[in-house]
Write a structure and sequence with these properties.
Layout: E1 3-11, E2 14-22, H1 28-41, H2 44-49, H3 51-66, E3 70-71, E4 74-79, E5 87-94, E6 96-97
Region (Disordered): 1-31
């Protein structure tokens, strides 16, 4: 079985993502590393405005792992308050993630 998904930073002129497509589901540690990789792709100001959204995304991955992971289809957005469209998204498209 293929496991596929992505973690994205969107809005405010930013469109960056880290994706996976593989035979085994990403672990909690790998999910957290993907979030860190994505955060490091952003400018310091773009990362700062999304700091709470990244924190919520990390919490989601931790909670998912504590419950045996999540199964597709998952589309979760962590929005930045006081903005129209700035957010961090986690999508599990096929399979499972964050075991």
């Amino acid at each position: 079985m293929v496991h596929r998904g992505r973690i994205q930073a969107q809005g405010g002129g930013v469109e960056k993502s880290v994706s996976w497509s593989r035979e085994t589901p990403p672990t909690k540690k790998e999910g957290l590393n993907m979030i860190n990789t994505l955060e490091n792709q952003l400018s310091p100001s773009d990362a700062k405005i999304r700091a709470k959204a990244f924190e919520k995304a990390r919490s989601f991955v931790n909670k998912a792992a504590n419950n045996g992971g999540v199964d597709a289809q998952v589309s979760k957005s962590f929005r930045v308050k006081e903005t129209k469209d700035v957010r961090v998204d986690i999508e599990v498209i096929i399979g499972k993630a964050f075991i």
